[in-house]
Amino acid sequence: GIDATATTLALTLHYLSLNKNVQDEARRDVLSGSTKYLRACIKETLRLSPTAGANSRYLAEDSNIGGYHVPAGVLVSAFGSVTSINDNYFNNPRSYNPNRWIRDLEGNSKIHPFASLPFGYGPRMCPGHKLAMQEMTLFLSEILKHYTLEECEDHLPPVGMIYRMNRVPDRQINIKFLKNI
Fold first, then answer.
1. What is the torsional sign of CA 173, 130, 102, 141?
2. Which domains does the chain carry?
3. Which residues partner with 77 through β-bridges?
4. How far apart are CA 22 and CA 40, in angstroms?
5. What is the pTM of this model?
6. Residue 158 vs residues 11, 27, 129, 171: alpha-carbon distances, Å
7. Of 9, 19, 84, 177, which has fewest CB within 10 angstroms of its CB?
């Protein structure tokens, strides 16, 4: 969980540095004593760049998946990195838009509940998901209170993801931290 949390923090800082309006809104949210929008930023990072590779389960019974017969006992994996950028589930799926996670905004209650599962689901869900969200929210809140983030000139977006034990950025992420006055 530590590596996944650190990667998500780095990627959220990256997305905030590239999206000034989003960063400003997240800062206003934090300074007002709320974290609703900031948490939406984290969820959007986890949607666009999930650190978990896949949710895998052994089939309990024979199933038909995509027109193929798959017998019971076969390990089936669902890759969140595929469903989370599918335009059947999200409008403009490759854009960074934390507003899609604000439930009271029109249309957002229609997001399929299984379209983005960065922590898994059910009894095998990551046991540390609440702690990870709290840690990330606290860390990012403190950063936004004290710093403005800018992308570095030598940084070339977009950052891709590669598979290790978890998914990680394909290169170093460089960000400028400018002290707020």
1. negative
2. 2-51+90-179 (1.10.630.10)
3. 56
4. 10
5. 0.86
6. 11, 23, 26, 10
7. 177
